[in-house]
Amino acid sequence: MLQILKTVDDALLKLDELEEGAWINLINPTESELDQVIAQFPTVDPINLKAALDEEERARLEIDDGYTLILVDVPVVEQSTTSSYFSTIPLGILLMKEHIITVCTREVPLLKDFITGRVKAFYTWKHTRFILQMLHRNATYYLQYLKGIDRASNRIERQLHQSTKNKELIKLLELQKSLVYFSTSLRSNEVVMDRMMRLEVIKKYPDDQELLEDVIIENKQAIEMTNIYSNILSGTMGAFASVISNNLNMVMKVLTSLTIVLAIPTMISSFFGMNVAIPMAGEPLAFLYILLMALVLSALSGIIMYKKKMF
Length: 311
Hints:
Elements: E1 2-8, E2 11-15, E3 23-27, H1 31-40, H2 46-49, E4 60-64, E5 67-79, E6 84-96, E7 100-104, H3 109-115, H4 127-162, H5 166-197, H6 206-272, H7 286-307
Helix pairs in contact: 4-5, 4-6, 5-6, 6-7
């Protein structure tokens, strides 16, 4: 999808033709849409334009002839067969003299907020501030999703206190995977922002420089929260792994004790079932005596094991 957007009188309008100060938004573009943009901007390297379409592309900042490429990772919600988890995908921003181009493989909430007007004081022709507003919004989404991960982790932990099931443990693993994605992406974004601090083309105005500093602070806060939640989640999973192992040991100990108790009647009946001369062979109440003997010995062994806390 190709959209041409421009702020006119504090309202974001969709245009049919490219104008100065417009924002070109490419969402999972087709080859014809990419060719259309390349034809409009022959100085743009097609490789840089398509960089964000590779989900494995790393975050970076490159200055080329006539434009600057800013590639950052943005958080998204993924759906699995059992639940939802979080991941990251690249967002490409090409800063040009008169236009700005964004490229992404899907319509992320970050860009949707600008298109639907949820972001105030937003102007497509203020390119530097627009980019910083996107980065600030991106850091806000990281923090929002991290709080969601923390709430989900606490909810699953309460469920595990009731019953330890594989379903809850798999959910914890998905949350752990989400935190790994976030940690890697946030650190890559931090490198990009640190380089932006050194570029005069980005911090052109004092207000923009202050906004960039706010973005860096928000990103650092997200990194710290990711590390904290990751450590807590790792500790929680380790604790429940120990609980599961301990419960298994308790079950095995009880089963072993019961096996020993039940083996005594079997052993006694085996002795008296032999085809040889044995005591009480001619006794009419021999069966009753043998039964009582087996019950008494089993009871005694059970009492001894109970006192030894084997049950």
